[in-house]
Amino acid sequence: MSDLDYRPKSKVGQWFNDRLPLLTLANHLTDYPTPKNLNYWWTFGGILTFCLITQIITGLTLAMHYIAHADMAFESVEHIMRDVNYGWLIRYIHANGASMFFLAVYIHIFRSLFYGSYKAPREIIWIIGIIIYLLMMAAAFMGYVLPWGQMSFWGATVITNLFSAIPLVGEGIVTWLWGGYSVDNPTLTRFFTLHYLIPFLILGLVVLHIWALHVPGNNNPVGIDIKKPSKDTVPFHPYIVIKDGFALLMFMIVFAFFVFYAPNILGHADNYIEANPMVTPAHIVPEWYLLPFYAILRSVPDKLLGVVAMLSAILILAVLPWLDTSKIRSAVFRPLYKQFYWILVADVLILGYVGAMPAEGLYLLVARVATAYYFLHFLVILPVLGFKEKTLPVPLSITEPVLGGSPNLAAARNKESKME
Amino acid sequence: MSEKKTKRRDFLFTATTAVGAVGAAAVVWPMIDQMNPDASVKALASTEVDVSALTPGNTLTVLWRGKPVFIRRRTQEEIDEARKVKMEDLIHPEKDEDRAKNPEWLVMLGVCTHLGCVPLNDKGDYNGWFCPCHGSHYDTSGRIRKGPAPLNMEVPKYEFVNANTIKIG
Ligand code: HEM
Ligand code: FES
From the CB of residue A72, how many other CB atoms can be counted at a distance below 10 Å? Predict the structure, then answer.
């Protein structure tokens, strides 16, 4: 049923819907035609929504007990852990929730890379996604500063100092960010304010992300445009709702494992030492989800160029729809791209690994090669591949290959029209 | 439409936009400037340090404006080593004579000019300081010799108030 034809059954419903068409929206979301071949990599959108809501609810409850002051923040987090009823649980869900959120977003992004979901007509969905990802990094970075441990303090110092690389105005910007001459109480209070705000900005962007998605509809593992609704689609409810729900349950098992059995494994012991502006920990490393970018930063021996390389590594993703010149979306039909895709996955994992290691000797060399390859993939391989690659024949519909579709165009078309 | 009318409109449009932009900027600026260091932060501008207990070859670290300051009482070898370095060998050429007016005393911000970590004393390839964060090596004059940091450690404004007391800031 199309959105325009929809009419609530009850009189009250009709009265309400004529004044505020919320029921039309609800109907749109339940009936929304979804490709019937979506696999489990498509369940991470729902999982990400769950992660965001989890962070907001646990964050709000933490904020009821947390004190944003340089002299009290560390103690107040310990107070949450020891005194507040279930404080340990809420904090562990929030701290590990950030990691789970990033795990999900990385899978979600690499899903898009594999199936070409960023290509026309889905560029805006993709770009909003990249903005969400940037805001997530900002939120997580500022959240990590709040407990005011050694890693909090020195992480904040190093990251804010990245801005000092900007010629002329850099130092002024850093002082402005700090509200002083070093990371201190004014920095902590503004970070708390922004950490509180950003998730709600993300929530707004998620609405736009889904709105933009509902214009062309979902991409799918075959990567072809489909007719909607048709025999290639199923209604979102109950088909996708059940599948998403099952995937979410599996995800929650992993989440619960970290919260209950290894709540500190992804963190750093140094963050249980209160911030000390006189001593830097021997080995400072960011949270695991920022490591690939940290490796890129350190692989460049020049301060300004290092920062430029790190930022470009993220921003290059925003122009990806125009760097990839291939008309075929799904890697299933791109034999060469498929191989380069997996090399890129390995490259990013290697960057993450060397990002956690000291920047010297062999690690540094590996980081440099991996950084160079990362840019090579996006700036050279992708644009060239679109012209050179011999792609495999793409089916005409999702149903065709399943029903033993014939390579004969006319026959397949014929079959399709008969089934409708 | 006559030429004149269009011009009058254009003028009004431009003038209104310009006044509106100035008004908006006047409102935005306080919102931005409130984040700059406030009066209480600026008031902590100087610190006095008693250095009488410091023996040669040792460093005292004190906090000034939230940042560590290294006060190093250098040995004769350290001074000689710093002074014989050729300017061509330096990434950020500065004479030791200019950095330490009184050669025995080196006073500088203990802040790595790369991304702000605190370098470690008596470490690194140049017998001065070594920053563990991304591997910057400084010599016995606190000058950058190797690694990603672009500049020497900064010498703040300081003076000897008397033989035993240094005033920083
Ligand atoms: C995008 C969503 C969010 C992410 C990725 C995120 C991430 C983080 C991270 C990584 C920490 C440090 C955890 C630790 O090691 O202790 C943290 C702490 C904190 N967050 Fe969030 N957060 C989010 C949303 C929120 C929201 C909406 C609020 C409140 C309104 C909030 C309030 C807090 C508070 C009070 C702390 C300090 C307590 C603590 O350190 O456990 N967060 N956050
Ligand atoms: S902060 Fe010292 S080397 Fe990076």
Answer: 15
Q: Specify the pLDDT at position B148.
A: 86
Instruction: Output the pLDDT for position A420.
Output: 42
Distance A72 CA to ligand 1 centre (A): 17
Structure-block tokens of residue A361: 């000797």
| More confidently predicted of A358 and A244 | A244
User: Cα(A150)–Cα(A269) distance, rounded to whole angstroms?
Assistant: 9
Find how far residue A339's CA is from the centre of its chain: 23
Contact between A277 and B68 using a beta-carbon 8 Å cutoff: yes
Tell how far the Cα of B69 is from the centroid of ligand 2, in angstroms.
16
What are A370-377's contacts with CB under 8 Å, separation 24+? A370/A295, A370/A299, A371/A295, A371/A296, A371/A299, A371/A300, A371/A309, A371/A313, A373/A343, A373/A347, A374/A296, A374/A313, A374/A344, A374/A347, A374/A348, A375/A312, A375/A313, A375/A316, A377/A340, A377/A343, A377/A344, A377/A347
- Where in A60-200 does DSSP place strands (E)? none
User: Residue B73's beta-bridge partner residues?
Assistant: B58, B105
Provide the token pair at B159: 């003076």
**Which of B38, B65, B115 lies closest to A158 in CB terms?**
B115
Taking CA atoms, what residue in B is nearest to A182?
B66
Query: Which ligand lies nearest to the CA atom of residue A84 in the structure?
Result: 1
Interface ipTM > 0.90: no
Tokens 């959105």 identify what position? A3
Name the closest residue on chain B to residue A306, using Cα atoms. B148
Mean pLDDT, all residues of chain B: 92
Strands (E), A210-309: 233-235
Interface probe for B, chosen from A157, A293, A357, A368 (most Cβ of B below 10 Å), is A157
Distance CA A374, CA A299 (A): 12
Chain B nearest C-alpha distance from A303 (Å): 6
CA distance A63 to A154: 23
> Is residue B134 annotated as a catalytic residue, yes or no?
yes
Closest CA to B148 of B89, B91, B109: B91
Q: Give me the amino acid identity at A33.
A: P
Please check whether residue A156 touches B, CB under 8 A. no
Is A5 at the interface with chain B, CB within 8 A?
Answer: no
